[in-house]
Amino acid sequence: MTADVHSDPTASDPTASDSTVSDATASGDGGVRQMIADAQAILGIELGSTRIKACLIGPDFAPIAIGSHEWQSELVNGRWTYSLDAVWSGLRACYADLLTSVEQRYGVRPTGYRAIGVSAMMHGYLAFDAAGELLVPFRTWRNTSTGPAAAELTDMLGVNVPLRWSIAHLYQAVLDGEPHVPEIATLTTLAGYVHWRLTGRSVLGVGDASGMFPIDPQTGGFDASLLAKVDRLIADRVPSATVTDLLPQVLPVGQEAGALTVEGARLLDPTGTLRPGIPFCPPEGDAGTGMVATNSVAPRTGNVSVGTSVFAMVVLEKPLAAVHSEVDVVATPAGDPVAMVHCNNGATELAAWAGVFGRFAAATGTPTDPDAVYAALLTEALAGEPDGGGMLAYNYLSGEPIVGLADGRPLFARTPDSRLTLANLMRTVVYSVFATLSLGMAVLAEEGVRVDTLVAHGGLFRTPGAAQQLLATAMGAPVAVAGVAGEGGAWGIALLAAYLHAAPAQGLTDFLAREVFRDGSRSVAEPEQRDVDGFAAFLDRFRRGLPLQRAAAEVLALAPGEENR
Hints:
Blueprint: H1 23-26, H2 30-37, E1 42-47, E2 51-57, E3 63-70, E4 74-76, E5 79-81, H3 84-106, E6 115-120, E7 126-128, H4 147-157, H5 166-175, E8 186-188, H6 190-199, E9 203-205, H7 206-209, E10 215-216, E11 221-222, H8 224-234, H9 243-246, E12 249-251, H10 262-268, E13 284-285, H11 286-293, E14 301-306, E15 310-315, E16 328-331, E17 337-343, H12 348-363, H13 370-383, E18 391-394, E19 411-414, H14 422-446, E20 453-457, H15 466-475, E21 479-482, H16 488-499, H17 508-516, E22 522-525, H18 529-544, H19 546-555
Helix pairs in contact: 4-5, 11-16, 12-13, 13-14, 13-15, 14-15, 14-18, 15-18
Organism: Rugosimonospora acidiphila
Family: Belongs to the FGGY kinase family.
Keywords: Carbohydrate metabolism, Kinase, Transferase, Xylose metabolism
């Protein structure tokens, strides 16, 4: 669930960007070089669904250098996972790429930083025993096998507990009688795990914690009354510990969350160049860092993140009146309630189509840069008919809880009288990225939730205007894009690390508004009524066609062995 996506065999990535380095810092002048040498730069690292990214920022909060490493989840024994070996080899590769970028640009190799922050995709299940050994392979947010647990917890707690939340994974393991359950000593998220190994502290920021278990907005920690209910529910089956014992400590934004240990420094940089002792901010989830990166932490602000998943976050003015399966309530890094509409499937299928057209260009003897492929296809989408020419597409590579699908199959369908053109094809494919999100956002509209402007982020929005305009069409609301839209969460967690030195003198909202986003520069796309009406027609077709998805999942079952690919 992060704002990056990359799918083989394409070399294109609609939500990754390594190029957003400010003009002020790109020159490699002596001041920046000295600042890096003096260990005053700030490092943010985010483990996204398809890319691990590191972002180095300076005193003006603009990116100085970027490092990255591509990786992919695996479907093993029916569960989406990443191995811990892949976590650490990927982190080391990402960090090494950052160091190479810094040395090439500024002629200096960092040995330390003013502060570090770690972020990662939220939710999921990482369970460890008392010796710190992983008990079962990491179960990511993408898994949808927790339906019975999520339904029972939702009914009992009176809040929506989505399938991807950590507590749903834990309770499902309890219901299934999995043998590892009595051995669990620690339960955490991916960001929490990496932070734990680097600093020795098992803690989480409020935003990431809110994807494990409901947060009490009054205390900023896990809701004690709801924890007590779950403890009573599982007491007979997990007699060795309470849920409170298993969960990490929740820390407020701006509080130091430990320092880099000698072991942690070697894990990140095996060359031994990186010095220990660097302070860390609380680890955060990609939803929280996306809110920070788009300055969407105050009531009536919201953002949309587009990557392997696509989700919207809207900071609430007041509690929701009812429990909705399409919406879960999480928190900003400062602990304010947020309505989250999360769709398991985002732009990965769009990336596959871009790969097809990129390969076609190469096969004709005209190899084309992946960014240019996306620019051409997204521009064509803008030229398509408002409803996509009567065609239908689904981007469901995995199950989609918002529409009640346990499994997904990407589909493209059309009637004989539909108009198959490149423009209509691409508009239909892009619409499919935003369609499920639109269904969830309609629930918030019915609740009376208001948002002044949605801010989009992810490299998909690097093509000026195109994806932004189509998202505004799908949302029926203005959509803004800032100049650092492609940097996303790695920049956001770097800002939270920088906030260590501003708190508690000013709140996070003031820090972002007055220090980071004070120039307010961003472009805004307004929806056009003709396109909004066309998208409504597409969305009606999308709803009516959902039985095709259920039939496809039954007919196009995975062949034996395919689930382990």
